[in-house]
Amino acid sequence: MMPYTYSLILFFTVIICFVASFDKRLRFDREFVPFFKAAALVAVFFIAWDVWFTSKGVWWFDTRYTLGLVMAGLPLEEWLFFIFIPFSCIFTYFCIDKFFRLQSLSAFNNIVVFVSVIICAVVALRYADRIYTVVTATVTIVTLVLFHFVFRIQWITQASLVFTLLMLGFLPVNGILTGTGLESPIVNYNPMEFMGIRVLTIPVEDAVYGYTQFLWVLYFFKKFQSKQHQSTDKEDSVSSEIVDH
Questions:
Q1: Is residue 243 part of a domain?
Q2: Is residue 200 part of a domain?
Q3: Which residue has better confidence, 144 or 229?
Q4: Which of 117, 104, 209 is nearest to 155 (CA)?
Q5: Domain for residue 239, yes or no?
Q6: 100 lies in some domain
Q7: Given this model, what pLDDT does residue 235 score?
């Protein structure tokens, strides 16, 4: 069982969402292409970040809990993490957005961005010698500034609320990865490279890291989703014209 621990965590995280994707009321399966494009694109950056931090000893993996397949210093399961976890997150956002009208929350975008940026800036300055803390806070600040002031994204508060709900799943999943219920953590952290503040066994930085990753995957998902729908509408329009003639 031990070598399958990480892979089983990923499997049980995604399986219910994957099966539910084919529900006729949801049909998230129609959005698989936009999702995989978005997840793969964002994964390039976050995997590079992961590889760098692993090489620097910021964190490392207990290979007793993995299948033993390693690429660029990362277990295979860690690579799959950047597809499986975002899948569950985007699926959840898709469902909530489909059945609930949360667009009015955009009125709180200024507050959410302002408070988040201030907190991240203060934390980065306070823990300037902790690389995980500083990099995570900085990337989050850049992300929020770009989304709010450059891209003019209107769904920041909506996404933030959904991510808060996702914490209900984040805590057990990341909790196990960081050692909850196990003899030793699957993912280990150098105590000199993060704040040392944990929720259960989870470094607070992990939640911020996940939030930023979620925002970027969602951003590109919406972009690719829009293009796919436009392409489909054009094809339907052409088909209709042919039938009319």
A1: no
A2: yes
A3: 144
A4: 104
A5: no
A6: yes
A7: 63
